[in-house]
Specification:
122 residues, DNA binding, H-NS_C_dom, two-stranded antiparallel sheet, mainly alpha
Amino acid sequence: MDLSSYSLPDLRRLQTKVESEIRRRSDTTRRALLKQVQKLVAEQGLTLDDLIDAPAAAAQPQAKATAAAKAKRGSAKKTKAPSVIKYRNPANPEQGWSGHGRRPQWVLDWLGQGKPLEELAA
């Protein structure tokens, strides 16, 4: 695919479409795999909770020992400050995005319409 003939806005729209398609296919694959795993677990007479809880219960004594060792060393756990909302969804102001991490679907939809991200600034 030769992208050299595309303008910058065209490339951004294409990027938005590609990101949306990747997210859609990833979700579809994740759901299909979950169904397969649920079927395999059910064939063995178990549930996903049985499968997930077993390793967690076995790891608890080690986790307690690790926590006790950290407490003895006097290491303080750093708390991460919450991200500041930089962008708000005009259709639903309760939805915000810090500008870090994966773009929410409403941001991708906004950009897919060719609108600039700056218009969403909080």
